[in-house]
Amino acid sequence: MKAIILAAGVSSRLYPLTLKNPKCLLELEPGKTIIEHQIDVLQRCGIKNILVVTGYLKDHIKNYLKDKVRYRDFDDFAKYNNMHTLYSIKDELNDDVVILFSDVVFGEKVLRKCAESNEDFSLLVHNKKVLSDTMRVKIKDGSIVDIGGHILPEQGDGNFIGVGKFSKKGAELLIEKMERMIDDPKHDNDYYTIPLVEVAKEHKVSFEFVEDEPWIEIDFLEHYNKAKDEIYPLVK
Fold this sequence. Notes:
The protein is an alpha/beta fold. The chain has one domain: Spore Coat Polysaccharide Biosynthesis Protein SpsA, Chain A, CATH 3.90.550. It is built from 7 helices and 13 strands. The strands form 3 sheets. Strands 1, 4, 5, 6, 8, 9, 10, 11 and 12 form a 9-stranded mixed sheet that branches. Strand 2 (about 25-30) and strand 3 (about 30-35) form a beta hairpin.
């Protein structure tokens, strides 16, 4: 199994912190960045083959992590969202893979929930409280049937935390749906969750509940402060 960390985005919502530093290199404690923590958790789960997809300030990431991981560049990061980022490295989706947003802080127990799944798809979902600043999910008959910020919090069944495991077959199904959208300008700003919803119309998209395990996705300054002060001390 390999891991792909999507780290190409600009993260303008965290300006000025991310004007000269990509979000994944913000420190959770002195000497430990968000992406380093993710790499540590992946390695503790036995996942050593880690690919980081870079774009914005890519040299900062490469100079910092050096040979800890492999790299692929996505230089159109200012024009497209992460569906295009992921599609650009579709040749890497050739085996079981864990795909991560590069701004999520979580622990080993959470990652094992999806990484050890035998399903073709296993997305990590927080269901204790539907949040207003995450991707919500709709669940029906044990499968995710919709996912995204367009789902109103009061209509959601949980929050996708930005981490999921895909089998080789699951990755192939996702690539197939992405190929149908990739050249259509209306999908320029789509997350890869949009074609995943199309997959869900024909195939079960399974999930694992995070339950009470600590996690946070960092989009705004208050998220970053909470990650440092509350979440990271529990999962490091």
